[in-house]
Design a protein that fits this description.
The complex is a heterodimer of chains A (about 400) and B (about 180).
Chain A: H1 6-14, H2 25-55, E1 63-68, E2 73-76, E3 81-85, E4 90-96, E5 99-113, E6 119-123, E7 126-130, E8 134-143, E9 154-162, E10 167-171, E11 174-178, E12 183-187, E13 190-194, H3 231-259, H4 275-288, E14 293-299, E15 306-312, H5 318-323, E16 335-347, E17 353-365, H6 370-391
Parallel strand pairs in A: 5-6
Antiparallel strand pairs in A: 1-4, 2-3, 3-5, 4-5, 5-8, 6-7, 7-10, 8-9, 9-12, 10-11, 12-13, 14-15, 15-17, 16-17
Chain B: H1 7-14, H2 18-40, H3 48-63, H4 75-97, H5 116-125, H6 130-140, H7 146-153, H8 157-179
Classes of the chains: A alpha+beta (about 400), B mainly alpha (about 180).
């Protein structure tokens, strides 16, 4: 036996054949990435929910809602109290075991707080943290510039009046504790300041001993019209539309690159590459090899035709042997092909198993134009993939 | 050998930018396919190469935020490490399950013949144990140094040396047998 030297081994390494990535592989990876996120997100969400159920203290059932108030309205905030909102107010709330989180972008709302835990009202000027029971938040929208036209920039001044207990107001500029009978005023960009003492008569009907009648069930708020949306909301929606449009364009581009465009049948295509010729030669070739086979379908809806079928007991070299048969003599020169196949086990009626290989093969005269050749490759690969997904018995 | 991805594209890919992620795959796909092809095809696992490559990149994206650009490993080494470990897992599983092999691609008659020694080597590589095969390929075809291979496969430096030596000796013997 001749010795192989280290140098010869290195030479062989340099001649090692390398498998090449198929066209459009990067896009397939990116496409495969997306659906995976959802199971992960769902799993994490389910896990978080399960943990929350086990770990968090059991509180009252969570409640949330949103109201655009046209006439004074009393709103129950779960077990955490009640809000009485004046006409023109907008309020969003979520109450759960962790506390009550509210957002009041506009209008005047009186709050009566019950129970323990955080109770926070987010306003355009900052946060209001209830540490007591009754208080009122009023938001005044004012044109920033004197005599400015409608639609000009507006500022929101927030006025908090405390009737019982204590409230803390805070924003980026500072914080302030407000006691009963005091008022605090603040706005975005300016620290809260104490104002004149509030007159108790300001809100007699809101005092705790007076029970606020239960409001009739409220219909769902109507969809917000553009005119009712704040400039921030409109800007946010426009940004979302722009983002989605960008994603759609990217998706269309990606699909085009992955799926390719159909190619027209050449007018002078020889008969051996058309449906009848392909079926005849395939049958003859497979019979020549003595294989049990089935031609299941021939897809000639696009160029080139793809012939689908399966063969029994496939061996590694079945297609190589097929290429060498007499029936395939016509495809030995200037012919391109795409072959995809997978093996599977089939259980016979008598319970025994046999191995079969499902295949999809296209044959076409070699394409000289590199652009058309690349389009054909991409398109045929995509069609094969589609057909395999449809025929794959593992999917059925 | 292809160069590394630039830092800016890497940073964008970390944030999930689709264009940057595509650029990352395109930058390394050839090396990943070559390595996986040489690991899996000699064992008749032709059909699993593409899936394995896809799985490699999905794992890369899942853990890309953990990769430290200023750390000891190059991005290419890190990606090839993921590919190698995945291939070793597949080979071990393949050995247990022995799934039906997919038929190979029909060879076009006008396809140029590949180098004889290269093809012979590819056949014999599949006869090595998976761990030796990985060490040999990472050193001989991917040019990783011993320390990088040791880190990639989580083995001692001495083990890298001994596996490489055994792999080369076995391959020389098997190639000589093929030639005769």
């Amino acid at each position: 036996m001749d010795e192989i030297t280290e140098a010869e081994l290195d030479q062989a390494v340099s001649e090692l054949p390398a498998r090449m990535p198929p066209p459009g592989f990067a896009d397939r990876v990116l496409a495969a990435r997306r659906p995976r996120r959802w199971p992960a997100v769902v799993a994490v969400a389910a896990l978080a929910a399960a943990v929350a159920l086990l770990v968090l203290p059991r509180g009252p059932a969570p409640t949330s809602g949103r109201a655009f108030v046209e006439a004074r309205q009393s709103i129950t905030l779960g077990a955490r109290g009640r809000a009485v909102a004046e006409a023109g107010a907008e309020l969003r709330w979520r109450v759960d075991a962790r506390g009550a989180a509210l957002a009041q972008p506009r209008g005047a709302v009186f709050y009566r707080v019950d129970g323990e835990g955080p109770f926070v009202v987010e306003t355009p000027g900052g946060e209001v943290l209830a540490q007591g029971t009754c208080f009122k938040v009023e938001i005044e929208m004012k044109n920033a510039l004197k005599g400015a036209v409608i639609g000009a920039a507006v500022t929101a001044a927030v006025l908090v009046t405390v009737y019982e207990g204590r409230v803390e107001v805070k924003n980026a500029k500072g914080s302030l504790k407000v006691s009963p009978g005091e008022q605090a005023r603040f706005a975005k960009g300016s620290a809260p300041t104490l104002r004149e003492r509030a007159r108790p008569a300001l809100a007699p009907s809101y005092k705790r001993p007076v029970r606020v009648p239960e409001p009739p069930p409220q219909p769902e708020p109507p969809p917000t019209e553009v005119g009712q949306s704040s400039p921030e909301e409109v800007a946010e929606l426009r940004a979302e539309v722009k983002r989605l449009r960008g994603e759609l364009e990217q998706e269309v581009e990606m699909r085009k690159e992955t799926e390719g465009d159909p190619v027209a049948f050449p007018e002078d295509l020889p008969e051996d590459f058309r449906e009848e010729g392909l079926v005849r030669n395939f049958k003859a070739g497979l019979e020549e090899l003595g294989l049990d086979y089935e031609i299941m379908s021939v897809d000639c809806s696009e160029y080139p035709c793809i012939i689908y079928g399966d063969v029994e007991n496939p061996t590694d070299d079945v297609f190589k042997r097929l290429a060498k048969t007499e029936a395939f003599e016509v495809y030995k020169k200037d012919t391109s092909n795409h072959t995809s196949s997978w093996g599977r086990k089939v259980t016979r009626d008598d319970g025994t198993e046999e191995k079969r290989a499902f295949f999809g093969v296209s044959l076409n005269p070699s394409e000289k134009d590199p652009t058309t050749r690349s389009t054909l490759n991409r398109r045929t690969r995509f069609r094969n993939q589609q057909a395999f997904e449809a025929f794959d018995p593992r999917q059925q | 050998m292809s160069s590394e991805l630039d830092d800016l594209t890497l940073a964008r890919a970390r944030k999930g930018d689709a264009g940057a992620c595509r650029a990352l795959v395109r930058c390394y796909e050839r090396r990943v396919f070559a390595l996986l092809g040489r690991m899996l095809e000699p064992r008749g696992m032709h059909a699993q190469v593409e899936d394995a490559a896809q799985e490699t990149f999905l794992r890369v994206f899942a853990h890309l935020k953990r990769f430290r650009a200023d750390g000891p490993a190059r991005l290419s080494t890190w990606i090839l490490t993921i590919a190698t470990r995945h291939a070793i897992d597949l080979i071990r599983r393949h050995g247990r399950e022995r799934p039906l092999e997919a038929a190979p691609t029909l060879v076009a008659p006008d396809r140029p013949d590949q180098q004889v020694m290269g093809r012979a080597l590819l056949r014999t590589i599949g006869k090595l144990p998976a761990e030796q095969q990985a060490v040999f390929l990472l050193r001989a075809t991917e040019d990783l140094d011993y320390a990088e291979i040791a880190a990639a496969l989580q083995i001692e430096l001495g083990t890298v040396r001994s596996r490489l030596s055994r792999a080369r000796s076995t391959l020389r013997r098997l190639l000589a047998k093929e030639r005769s």
